[in-house]
Write a structure and sequence with these properties.
Helices cover about 75% and strands about 0% of the residues. The chain contains three helices and no strands.
């Protein structure tokens, strides 16, 4: 799931705050207040990191789909070797065709 990175990042953030608060609780009330202030200050950064992870997943999916589309388009192309192959009797075919065309172009009363 795409929302999973955000949930994991926020869960990790919660664990970090809890661990820090537990460590600071031994030091006194001021340490806990500093930890809470730090947590409030860093929360947007953690959320931004989670959003960037989510966007990375979307971008990787888009890149993969685009690459697949280009590959399908390339595979669907008709191969072209660039060389035209004429039959062995091509001069005869050309002469026959030229004769038929010249007869078609004659006026109606001509023999």
């Amino acid at each position: 799931m795409v929302g999973a990175p955000i949930r994991r990042t926020l869960a990790l953030f919660g664990l970090m705050v809890a661990a820090c608060a537990a460590g600071c609780a031994q030091g006194g009330k001021d340490d806990v207040a500093e930890t809470i202030a730090w947590a409030k200050a860093i929360r947007p950064l953690v959320q931004d990191a989670a959003v960037i992870q989510q966007q990375r997943v979307y971008r990787e999916r888009q890149d993969l789909a685009f690459e697949r589309q280009l590959n399908r388009a390339e595979e669907a192309k008709v191969p072209y070797d660039g060389v035209m192959h004429y039959p062995g009797n091509w001069p005869g075919i050309s002469a026959k065709r030229d004769g038929q065309q010249s007869r078609r172009n004659l006026p109606a009363g001509a023999p």
